[in-house]
Amino acid sequence: MFVSRGLVVGFTVAVxxxxxxxxxxxxxxxxxxxxxxxxxxxxxxxxxxxxVIGTPIKPLxxxxxxxxPGYYTVKPGDTLIRIGLESGQSxxxxxxxxxxxxxxxxxxxxxxxxxxxSAAATATAVASDNGVVTRPVNSSTVAPASAPASAASIxxxxxxxxxxxxxxxxxxxxxxxxxxxxxxxxxFIWPASGSLIAGFxxxxxxxxxxxxxxxxxxxxxxxxxxxxxxxGLRGYGNLVILKHNNTFLTAYAHxxxxxxxxxxxxxxxxxxxxxxxxxxDRVKLHFEIRRQGKPVDPSRYLPAR
Length: 305
Known about the structure:
The structure is a single chain. This protein is α+β, with helices and mostly antiparallel strands and 305 residues long. Among the domains are: 63-136, LysM domain (Membrane-bound Lytic Murein Transglycosylase D, Chain A, Roll); 196-300, Glucose Permease (Domain IIA) (Distorted Sandwich). 14% of the residues lie in helices and 22% in strands. The chain contains four helices and 15 strands. It has helices at 5-28, 80-87, 91-97, 117-121; strands at 71-73, 111-113, 123-128, 131-136, 196-198, 208-211, 217-219, 224-230, 238-243, 248-255, 257-258, 265-266, 271-274, 284-291, 294-296. A hairpin with a 4-residue loop joins strand 9 (238-243) and strand 10 (248-255). Helix 2 packs across helix 3. The longest helix is centred in the N-terminal third of the chain and has 24 residues, at 5-28. It is globular, with a radius of gyration of 36 Å. The model is unreliable at 18-41, 47-52 and 122-179 (pLDDT under 50).
């Protein structure tokens, strides 16, 4: 059928016009963001889940006691057992003094009481030319006891508000309190009969390493009370810690087996463990004497052989 060329061209132009018209209609209806809106009407950013904007961070328990005598700030890697060894206290006593419901849950930066509340609260004010110096008064010697101590977080004494004029006085560094008469007079004995294979070195070896054979007896170096018996302190293996009084602890590490329980009273020379090589490179007894929590050279306290 014959179709005029002019008719085809006209029809093509008409169709193109309709297509362009349709495209223009759709573009005009597309959503457009109004960027001219003032900042005051912009919605506030949503808070992140779990974060309340403007809420101060809650301080860790006992933070108000940081740096005070009789308190300890928890460091990375600390456990209550290690803190007890370093402070010369039973870990159970520390838990009880601080009302810790779970002794395994302590936080880095948390401040713990590591002195008996009665001893820490009792102080003698001494007048001096430089101001007032407070000296903590030691509590009486702790006799061995068999009654277990209940585990308990930090007592939070209310801070008293100061009134009137406050005069800033540079705090004096308290000298270590002298032990009550008789507390340094413990007659220690050697805890094992083997030869000495490593002596005391404050930086590398905090006690004596004594050679022996697996199963040989490990003896209590003096009368005391078992404040720890277990394997919860890394590097010590099966460990026994005895508290002899307010001044001295002794530690017996790497044992094959433990023959005493926590809170048990023991006598000097009593067999408390059997020598072994737990957490050690050979069979040996690692023995420490700690004075007020600090390791001291056993040669100062053990009799000469």
